């Protein structure tokens, strides 16, 4: 058995959100991951973000591949749509679902093996097409589910639990997402919920390809000295460039700030991101600058976290393809089958 259903009763005084839902309404089954696994903290951040955004659970579709990370959608949003696909194939399934029904919020949950090893091509194409989604990689540097082999995000020189040194160069998914044109790019740490919850909220409201690389230590196979994805290593080498407050379109801006230290970034739907600058030189609107900064800090052994890049005017796949505004499942036979005269016109235009 890979999941245990949670009992339905809860304390009658649990706080509710604007829809009358409690936190429990956004939870899933009881997690069967190892106690202390970073992935459980990410699930908890997703639950918190969706509760605070007052999202109707039936409007969310969560998709994943294979791995401990890809099992996690069972442990959150139990009342949402879910699809557990094949190893490394989540991005194409998500792309297809998004094209068929643009009205849902798409949450792609993956692992570093799922996205940087077997699924690297799929990851790249979903990002470069600008699919409107939140793509979260729960990055522990190993294949946790198959007992701790190095994944493609393991740093060169880092050591496995058995003491073997990784001799391959690592793939930095954040650098790739920036290069491939993602319009929202962030890196976070499962141990930093204060940073992760607003990042997930902002990514959900972003109308384009939003990518979050979340370092998520595997306590069973990659949390030892010599690992660069352990809790201790990430805490010691974490360079936070900004802190985010997320404000929905209906909330008043209440953040207090010193001029010059906070920038308010408005998104398409009117929601606002209040970015507290911790690194004064860092500009999250400069794609090339972000790429250079990340590479420079990585050379110095630092892991840069925070909102790394956001495009205020994102364009998504539906805009690129000029698709109809309604979800395909709401179209009737008349729209879906316009008749032989229309087909003749299309054929004639291609001759
Ligand atoms: C096509 C295919 N190849 C290999 C596997 C075996 N396999 C299952 S999970 C996994 C790696 C998972 O690693 P990751 O995505 O990093 O998830 P984690 O368990 O670390 O969270 C592999 C290689 C598989 N299930 N399917
Ligand atoms: S093996 Fe690692 S990734 Fe999998 S549940 Fe355990 S700690 Fe988490
Ligand atoms: Mg992994």
What descriptors fit this protein?
351 residues, alpha/beta, 3-stranded antiparallel sheet, globular, binds thiamine diphosphate, binds iron/sulfur cluster, binds magnesium ion
Can you put this structure into words, describing what you see?
- There is one protein chain.
- The protein is of the alpha/beta class and 351 residues long.
- The protein has 12 helices and 13 strands.
- The chain has helices at residues 38-52, 68-71, 90-100, 112-117, 120-129, 173-180, 193-205, 231-237, 287-299, 317-321, 333-336, 340-350; strands at 60-64, 81-84, 105-111, 133-139, 142-143, 149-150, 184-189, 209-215, 238-240, 242-247, 262-266, 272-277, 303-310.
- The strands form 3 sheets. Strands 2-1-3-4-8-7-13-9 form an 8-stranded mixed beta sheet, with helices on both faces. A 3-stranded antiparallel beta sheet has the order 10-12-11. A two-stranded antiparallel sheet has the order 5-6.
- Strand 11 (262-266) and strand 12 (272-277) form a beta hairpin.
- Helix 1 packs across helix 7 and helix 3 runs parallel beside helix 5.
- The protein is globular and about 70 Å long.
- The model has no long low-confidence stretch (mean pLDDT 94).
- The structure holds thiamine diphosphate, iron/sulfur cluster and magnesium ion (MG).
């Amino acid at each position: 058995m890979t999941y245990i259903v949670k009992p339905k009763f809860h304390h009658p005084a649990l706080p509710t959100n604007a829809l009358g839902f409690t936190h429990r309404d956004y939870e899933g089954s009881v997690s069967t991951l190892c106690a202390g696994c970073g992935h459980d903290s990410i699930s908890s951040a997703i639950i918190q973000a969706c509760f605070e955004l007052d999202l109707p659970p039936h409007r969310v579709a969560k998709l994943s591949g294979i791995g401990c990370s890809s099992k996690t959608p069972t442990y959150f949003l139990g009342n949402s749509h879910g699809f557990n696909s094949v190893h490394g194939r989540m991005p194409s399934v998500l792309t297809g679902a998004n094209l068929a029904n643009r009205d849902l919020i798409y949450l792609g949950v993956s692992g570093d093996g799922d996205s940087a090893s077997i699924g690297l091509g799929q990851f790249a194409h979903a990002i470069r097409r600008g699919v409107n989604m939140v793509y979260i990689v729960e990055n522990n540097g190993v294949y946790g589910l198959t007992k701790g082999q190095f994944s493609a995000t393991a740093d060169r020189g880092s050591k496995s639990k058995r003491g073997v040194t990784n001799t391959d160069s690592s793939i930095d998914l954040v650098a790739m997402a920036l290069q491939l044109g993602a319009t929202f790019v962030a890196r976070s740490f499962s141990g930093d919920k204060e940073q992760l919850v607003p990042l997930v909220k902002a990514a959900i409201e972003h109308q384009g390809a939003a990518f979050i690389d979340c370092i998520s230590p595997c306590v069973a196979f990659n949390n030892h000295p010599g690992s660069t994805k352990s809790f201790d290593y990430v805490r010691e080498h974490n360079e936070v460039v900004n802190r985010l407050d997320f404000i929905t379109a209906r909330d008043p801006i209440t953040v207090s700030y010193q001029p010059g230290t906070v920038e308010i970034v408005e998104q398409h739907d009117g929601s606002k991101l209040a970015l507290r600058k911790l690194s004064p030189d860092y500009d999250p609107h400069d794609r090339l600058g972000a790429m250079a900064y990340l590479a420079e800090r990585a050379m110095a052994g630092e892991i840069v976290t925070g909102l790394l890049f956001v495009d205020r005017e994102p364009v998504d796949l539906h805009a690129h393809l000029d698709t109809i505004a309604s979800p395909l499942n709401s179209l009737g036979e008349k729209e879906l089958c316009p008749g032989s005269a229309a087909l003749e016109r299309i054929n004639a235009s291609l001759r």
